[in-house]
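Quick one, probably user error.
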């Protein structure tokens, strides 16, 4: 999924920093004991026995998988399988989420549902976060430039429609609208990759810079939670801007030299760039699940 969430992330990080400042442990001196050797041995044994939480395992795996990657560079097949295996086994309880939480409650009739975002981690290599969608919540059609994205539906039913660009058809300003418009938009032909419902539990969805449905739209049929891993994350300075789109049936426009067989037209659409939808509201919330130790 992976829509741009930098503003929400900043607010959550500021709250976290304030919480840290209130913990009065900065002036505490370490305790000493004559039997330090025995205690150290017991601590080492305890560390070996402590199980790594699923979210910590996810963080550690992302660190390994995206360590040598950058924009447009796809992790190796082995690394993709490794990260997918971790996400495939992920459960809502691993991040302390249940559908009854306030994050997932239906909106007031007539109002666009507010989407909540739980920030887990972000660095220049990858980001981890959870989108919480109430029923009818929509993540509008958007892209993931130069990214490899893993999306795991933790619970709920969600409709996904995704596209990839048709490689040999560039953007066209000569498209003729049907019926004709005063201003002809710039549109580009895309091929439908997925147009179906996902029902949790299900396998992790993966999209790539030029394949796998790099542009997608999510619609929550029921309350949904989606764990997203982006590598690398959005970054305007690095040219990874989140672009939104409108999609139109193939027959809405005609472009010289572009034709599709009648029986295949439903598998294609024209995409037009748009500004971020005014009714899209993503609110950052504090993550309250197991802690992540950033080594």
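Nope, works fine. Designed sequence:
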């Amino acid at each position: 999924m992976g829509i741009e969430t930098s503003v929400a992330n900043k607010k959550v990080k500021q709250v976290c920093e304030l919480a840290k400042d209130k913990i009065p442990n900065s002036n505490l001196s370490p305790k000493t004991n004559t039997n330090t050797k025995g205690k150290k041995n017991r601590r080492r044994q305890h560390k070996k026995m402590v199980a790594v939480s699923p979210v910590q395992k996810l963080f550690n795996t992302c660190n390994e998988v995206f360590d040598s990657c950058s924009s447009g560079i796809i992790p190796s097949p082995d690394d993709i399988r490794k990260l997918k295996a971790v996400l495939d086994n992920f459960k809502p309880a691993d991040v302390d989420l249940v559908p009854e939480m306030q994050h997932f409650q239906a909106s007031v009739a007539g109002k666009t549902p507010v989407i909540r975002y739980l920030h887990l981690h972000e660095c220049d290599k990858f980001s981890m976060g959870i989108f919480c969608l109430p029923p009818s919540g929509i993540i509008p059609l958007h892209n993931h430039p130069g990214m490899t994205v893993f999306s795991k539906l933790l619970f709920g039913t969600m409709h996904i429609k995704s596209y990839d660009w048709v490689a040999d058809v560039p953007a066209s300003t000569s498209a003729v609208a049907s019926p004709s418009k005063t201003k002809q938009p710039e549109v580009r032909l895309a091929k439908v990759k997925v147009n179906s419902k996902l029902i949790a539990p299900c396998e992790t969805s993966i999209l790539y810079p030029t394949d796998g449905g790099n542009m997608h739209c999510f619609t929550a049929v029921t309350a949904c939670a989606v764990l997203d891993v982006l590598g690398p994350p959005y970054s305007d300075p690095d040219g990874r801007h989140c672009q939104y789109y409108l999609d139109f049936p193939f027959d809405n426009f005609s472009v010289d030299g572009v034709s599709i067989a009648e029986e295949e037209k439903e598998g294609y659409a024209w995409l037009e760039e748009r500004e971020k939808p005014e009714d899209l509201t993503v609110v950052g919330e504090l993550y309250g699940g197991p802690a992540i130790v950033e080594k």
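The longest helix spans residues 6-21.
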